[in-house]
Amino acid sequence: MLKAVLIMFVAMSLIPAGDMAGKLLTGPHGVSPAFVAWSRFALGVLMILPFTPRSAFGLLKDPRIWFRALLLAGGIFSIQTALRTEPLADVFAAFFIGPILSYVLSALLLREPTTTIRSLLMLTGFAGVLLVVRPGFGGTTGLAWALLAGCFYGSFLTASRWLSHLGSPLALSFTQLFVSGLVLMPLGLMHLPTLTPAVAGFTTLSALGSMLGNLLLLVAYARAPSTKLAPLVYFQLIAATGLGWAVFHDFPDAITWAGLALVLLSGLASAALRR
């Protein structure tokens, strides 16, 4: 269980790093969210292909594999669209409906065990998220995209646990990259940006962070039930806060630090619980 927790921490750091690069692309550099989403998957396929086992190609015959990949494609496209117009904090606040949804879906659909204390810890972690972001939901289109991204992501987390037995984490990672890249290819090619060194660098960072993060997520979910690991997804917010501090010089205040402590402590406590 401890190894799964450590893997989750690394994965949840890499994914926000990819999102930060995506925000820099869609903001200052004016790149389309469609291209950012597609390039993540296209470059991810190229990075992982030399290490992909032959068994991964056989998985593409399973409709459930396509369903899971489409959830990820929808989530990445939605969050990049949200990040184009909305503040990072508000987007993450809306996006974190995902872990709650995953916790509920895993309990209802996968019959994974839940306890009162673990449920309370999940709610405590969510309260910490609210302390960090203190969102002012104005019902904007961008926040609607962020909420949609969270719903896609929560469903993807549950689907990852549901299908983890079908293949190795490497094989499953290849299928999600390949299918998502194939589906988003028309949109990506329609919005090709001018390739400058900055655009190329951020595009590569966006793809690398997403690919490695989601690969490690699969490794963690193959080692432990998602009901125990779901609270650790909140660590993305901690990583995003650190990246925001480093890139945008946005230093957290006392209330934010209190929220981060709640998120981290509730996640660790929930992961430490045994059946």
UniProtKB/TrEMBL annotation:
InterPro entries (alphabetical): EamA_dom (IPR000620), EmrE-like (IPR037185)
SUPFAM superfamilies: Multidrug resistance efflux transporter EmrE
Domain of life: Bacteria
Residues passing through the membrane, by range: 31-53, 65-83, 89-110, 117-137, 143-163, 170-192, 198-222, 229-248, 254-273
Keywords: Membrane, Transmembrane, Transmembrane helix
Membrane topology recorded in Swiss-Prot or TrEMBL: Multi-pass membrane protein
Entry GO CC: membrane
UniProt protein name: Riboflavin transporter
Encoding gene, per UniProt annotation: ribN_5
